[in-house]
Design goal:
Elements lengths: L21 H21 L4 H26 L3 E5 L3 E10 L2 E6 L8 E2 L4 E8 L9 E3 L8 E7 L2 E7 L5 E3 L1
Antiparallel strand pairs: 1-2, 1-6, 2-3, 2-4, 5-7, 7-8, 8-9
Length: about 170
């Protein structure tokens, strides 16, 4: 009885299996480009987050100004305007009280870091908006709410009246 043995031989290699085709390379580059574009879009900052960070910086400056007013033994104030804000101090003189800008680096005039379109200041118990936030020589003052407005929304800085400020 005879047996037939079949020996499998490898198929001859073709030039096509030695590398990638131009189409395959273009598909890979297209996918990489789409992933890079998606990563760039997700990395842009949220404007509301920027507004909240500005408010947190101001809240810390308000706490510092409150402490500074007590140390200097005369009132300080924060005044916003369309381009930014500045701190002033009240000095007593023979002609009366005058508000003068603070020359300290910490309290120097600043421009708004982001697109703040408006500011509202309201003290507790008052129905009218105020032009400035006052920091008196006493450790207790009237509670105040400062609202920063932008195209992204609004953020409030709440002053409790004891020199502490929170952002919400």
């Amino acid at each position: 009885m005879r047996q037939h043995i079949t020996i499998a031989t490898a198929a001859p290699r073709t030039a096509r299996s030695d590398g990638f085709t131009l189409i395959e390379m273009m598909v890979v580059l297209l996918i990489a480009g789409i992933l890079a574009a998606a990563a760039t879009v997700t990395m842009t900052r949220n404007p509301h987050t920027d507004l909240k960070e500005d408010a947190q910086r101001l809240a810390l400056l308000f706490e510092t100004a409150s402490d500074e007013a007590q140390l200097r033994d005369h009132p300080l104030a924060w005044e916003p305007d369309a381009n930014g804000w500045h701190f002033v101090e009240r000095l007593r003189g023979p002609a009366g009280d005058t508000w003068v800008p603070l020359a300290d680096n910490l309290f120097a005039p600043q421009a708004w870091k982001d697109a703040v379109s408006g500011v509202a200041i309201h003290f507790a118990g008052s129905s009218q908006a105020a032009a400035r936030v006052l920091f008196g020589v006493e450790s207790i003052s009237a509670p105040v709410v400062v609202t920063l407005y932008s195209d992204a929304g609004a953020v409030q800085i709440d002053g409790s009246g004891n020199g502490r400020y929170t952002v919400r």
